[in-house]
Amino acid sequence: MKTLYGLLFSALILVTNIAQAEFVDVVAKVKPSVVGVGIHTPTSRPQNILRGTGFVIGDGRYVVTNAHVLPTELDESLLQKMAIFIGSGKQAKVRQAEIVATSSLYDLAILKISGSPLPAMTLADSTFKPDGSYIAFTGFPIGTVLGLYPVTHRGMIASTTPTVIPVQSAGQMTLKMLKRMRNPYLVYQLDATAYPGNSGSAMYDMKTGKVVGIINKVFVQATKEAVISKPSGITYAIPVKYLHQILKENNIKF
User: Fold this and answer.
1) CA–CA distances in Å: residue 226 to residues 88, 156, 166, 208
2) Angstrom distance (rounded) from CA 97 to CA 39
């Protein structure tokens, strides 16, 4: 009997090691597709300000991020440009970017970058992933304080839940909440912790590396948790289904 238990334990360790090795390979493949999104000001110090994370899709020239990550205005007198930061380390390489499409409803944005194409991630289909699915996301949770070093978190989809939750009384309703109630949609609630710098990160299947959602630390949280005084710390993600929809609506093919 002891020998049988020993064999089962050894088999479990082997399976765990194989799964870990496979995930290591997935992360290594994902990291070159992860970029920073922010502002480049050649006349100032610091020159680069990171506002969030993005990831490359399609032919290697499209970047997806959250719409709230984009700069609201640029100072032309300072030669400010919206930029994508690529590479890894303290010396970020800068690529100029232009907005191709945005969605205020889903808080998503698609950018097109200049220069040679970058490694792209593959989008999963529009099917919702079931609760309990293991996922990971890679981005810049603390910005570029320590340099442009992507960080990976892992967890699972804890729930699939509507963006709008009922309130106890009409007095708690806001104009923003009323507008949202006209167009509710489903988002993923995660058991992994993301930070504001992770906004726009690709949430991907741990086994395949395919994008199943886009991390949203600010916009969705503000919508779902409008009736509580302090944010819960829960992390949400926009399902890739809605990114597919925006790509189709804007005739973006790749």
Assistant:
1) 37, 24, 11, 35
2) 10
pTM: 0.83
Q: What does pLDDT average to over the chain?
A: 83
Helix (H, G, I), strand (E, B) or coil at 246: helix
**What is residue 122's DSSP assignment?**
P
According to DSSP, residue 123 is labeled: B
Amino acid (1-letter code) at residue 174: T
Q: Give the DSSP H or E segment for 222.
A: helix 219-224
pLDDT of 169:
46
* pLDDT tens sequence across 47-65: 888 899 999 999 999 999 9
Domains, in order of start, for the chain: 134-249 (2.40.10.10)
The one-character DSSP state at 148 is: B
Give the integer Cα–Cα distance in Å for 115 and 60: 10
Over residues 164-208, the pLDDT tens digits come to 655 544 455 555 555 555 667 899 999 998 888 899 999 999 999
As a three-state string, the secondary structure of 58-95 is CCCCEEEEEHHHCCCCCCHHHCCEEEEEECCECCCEEE
Instruction: Give residue 250's identity as a one-letter amino acid code.
Output: N
Taking residue 140's Cβ as centre, other Cβ atoms within 10 Å add up to 31
Backbone φ, ψ for residue 153 (5° rounding): -120, 150
**Other C-beta atoms lying within 10 Å of the C-beta of residue 251:** 7
Q: In this structure, are strands 108-113 and 93-103 parallel, antiparallel, or unpaired?
A: antiparallel
